[in-house]
Amino acid sequence: MLNINLSSINTLSEALLEEINNYEEKTLSCTQEIFNTQPNWHDQNSERFFENIPLQKLEIQSFIDDLKNINETYKNIIKEIQKVNIDEPINKLFVNQNNKATIIESYKIAINNFKNTMQKLNSFNLSFCSSTEKSLIKSEISRLNTIITKLTISKNKIEKAFDELKIAEENINTMLSKDLISALLKEVDYSDILFKGVE
Amino acid sequence: MEKNFFVKEEQLSKSISIAEELRKESVTNANNILTTISSLKDSILIDNKTIDIGENIVIKNMNAINKNLNGLSNTLNYIIKMYNQTIDNSTNYINSKIGEDTNE
Q1: Rounded to whole angstroms, how far apart are CA atoms A29 and B85?
Q2: B6 to chain A: which residues are within 8 Å by CB?
Q3: B36-82 per-position pLDDT tens digit
Q4: Which residues of A fall within a CB distance of 8 Å from B47?
């Protein structure tokens, strides 16, 4: 069962990207500022210290890339949902595939009921009716026919939407597990990389 | 100590204060990122459960990076402290020697 708040993802994803960009700018500027102190300190320790800063920058950049990938995952989820062919734009999505059978069955029952009524009206002997009555019954048959057509189109659309949403749901699940695995693979213990600080 | 040992304290202090300011701002951004990622996580429920899209890894890495940046800045502060201590010790030593010489 999939429950997605697309408008919330859209807004938050934009905000997240802005924060990531700010974080990138601040952390890399901070590292650069420290690196720029090179002409101000020289002794037996300074060389090792300054040699390690570019490595620190690379690690920060790699982490920023991971953050951007997370944001990209959410954008891909939105794209996946937008592939679903529904007339109205989707802001919130709640899909319970278990409901598909019940909804489609309800449509079929309604369509059959209308068809039965129409058949009964068609089977009437109208020879004794006045022309006004005949015209009313024919107009009712035509109205029922239109309703049946509309209900059938609607039923097919809903059935198709359920199927497309099922594919979207499966794609999102794959996307999420893939990202999770790749994030786990990229996990780095940064504490081993450089200075742990001087107490 | 190497022959060409030097510490330009004033320039170093200036850079450290700029770096520390940037680091503080980056911590604010980091907290905002975590809040937003947490809210994003709540926007998707699969079978009524949220999915962790690497949130724990983000927290761990972000803490490590902030700690390392703090470490870099602390190292420079430590250098200044050591430098001042060396100067103080040398001055004290020279003064004590001057005192000894005067007393003699």
Answers
A1: 30
A2: 41-43
A3: 988 888 888 877 888 777 677 788 888 888 888 888 888 888 888 88
A4: 1
* Residue showing tokens 């999505």: A93
CB contact under 8 A, B15 and A176: no
Alpha-helix runs per DSSP H in chain B: 9-42, 55-103
CB A57 within 8 A of CB A27: no
Q: Mean pLDDT: which of A111-115, A165-169, B87-91 is highest?
A: A111-115
User: How many domains are there within chain A?
Assistant: 1
Report yes or no on A197 lying in a domain.
no
Position A199 in a domain: no
Residue A133 in domain? yes
Please answer yes or no on whether A31 and B69 come within 8 Å at the CB atom.
yes
Looking at residue A12, what is its pLDDT?
93
Which residue has tokens 């690690």? A59
Structure-block tokens of residue A138: 């024919």
Amino acid in the structure at residue B61: N
Q: Is the model's pLDDT at B101 over the cut of 80?
A: no
Task: Please give the residue range of the domain that contains residue A6.
Answer: 2-192
User: At A185, is the pLDDT very low, low, confident or very high (cuts 50, 70, 90)?
Assistant: low
Q: Is the pLDDT of residue A186 over 70?
A: no
Hey, what are B74's tokens?
């602390």
- Out of B26, B45, B78, closest to residue A198 by CB: B78
Residue A54 domain-assigned? yes
